[in-house]
Request: fold
Amino acid sequence: MVAACSTGVFVLDYISNYLLASLPSEALNLLELEPVVLPQGAPIFEPNESIDRIYFPETGMISLLVVTSEGDMVETAIVGREGALGIQRGLGRRQSLTRATVQIGGRFLTMAAPKFELAAAVSAPIREMIVWYTEVLWGQAQQTAACNAVHDASSRLCRWLLQSAKAVGSDQLALTQEFIGQMLGVRRTTVTLLAQHLQRSGAIRYRRGKISILDRATLEACACECHTVMQNLQNQKLAS
Amino acid sequence: MPMYYFNLKTQEGRVPDPDGIDLLDDARARQYAEQVALELMHQREIKTRFWRIEVCNSERTPIVELLFANVDPLVANLPLASRITVEQASARTAGLVDAILDTRRSYYELRATLSHSKGKPYLATHDGIAFRAPVRRKGDSRN
Reply:
C-alpha cells in the first residue's frame, strides 16, 4: 500500500511486494518508488528494448513472453508480488530479453532505472536481492520450459491458476480464455472445455473473463508437480 | 460466419462449450475440433482415447462426433491391425460410457417420477441436467 503525505511525496506504509518487504529499512529508504496502476494488456517491454524502469507488482501480474516470427507467444515466466520486473538493471545497463505485458491489472511500485542502479551500487542487500531474484526467475523459466514440453494442458492450467493466484494474492482472477489460451499455447475452446471440466469438479467457478478458485486442494491435486517445485524455489529464496 | 460449438464427452459426462466460435463452414469446424482434441489429449493420450468432441452447428444440433483415438498421432503410427484394434476398442468404450450415462439418467428420471407420485420433493443433477419432482401444494389435484 502507498499513501500520499502532505508534501506530495509518496511514502510506504505497508508493502505488499515480498521482495521489497525482505529489504532492511535503510535499503528500502534508498528506493524512490512511485505507485502506478496498470490495466490488463498494458505493454511494458519489447524484446531488446532498454530497461528504463523497474516494476514491483503489488496486486497485478506481469507475463514474460517469447514472441515467434509468426506472432505466436509463449509465456516463460510470471512476475507477481513475489518479484520484480527489470530488476537486473540495478547491476548496469540491460535490455529486456522478452516481451513483458501486464496480464492481470493492478497496483505496481515503479522506479527509474538509473536511480535504482545508484541505490544498488551503495547497498549490499539490494544487490543481493537482485542476484537471488534473478536466480528464482531463471529457475521458473527452466521449470516452465520443461512443463510446456511434458505436461498435459489440464495439469498446466491448474498449475498456472495456482501460480497466478499466488502472484496477485487473490483467488479471483480476471482472465479471458483468449489470454489463458495464449499462455498455455492452446485454442480458446480448449481452455473453455478444460475450465468447464474443472468447474464440474468444484475446484473453480468459471464465468467469461473471471475465474474464482473455490477448492485449492482439488486444484493442487490436478496440477503438475511444477507448481510445488516453483513454490519451493521462491520459498527457499525468501527464507534464505 | 456461422457459429459452432464443441462439446466434450468424457467418462464423467458431457462438458458443454457455452461460448462457441465463428468458423467458415463444417469442414473448418471439423479441422478445428481435431486441433482441440489434439490439445486436450497431448501427454495423456491413453487416458483420453475414448473421449469425443461433439461438433454442433449454430442451432446446437450435433453434426459430427470425433473420437480421440481416430486423430491420435500415436495410434496413427501403429501397424494397421493394431491401429484398428485400438480404434475399435476406444469406440466400444465410448459406447459403453454412453450406455452407463443413459442408465444413470433413466435412474434419476425414475426416482423423480416415483417421488412425484408420492407427493414428495426430489431434486438431483446429473451430467448438467436437473431432475426434479415438483412439490404438490394443498388442494392441488394434478397428478
User: Anything to note?
Assistant: The first strand of chain B starts at residue 3 and ends at 10. Chain B touches chain A at residues 6, 8, 10, 12-13, 15-19, 21, 32, 35-36, 39-40, 42-44 (CB under 8 Å).
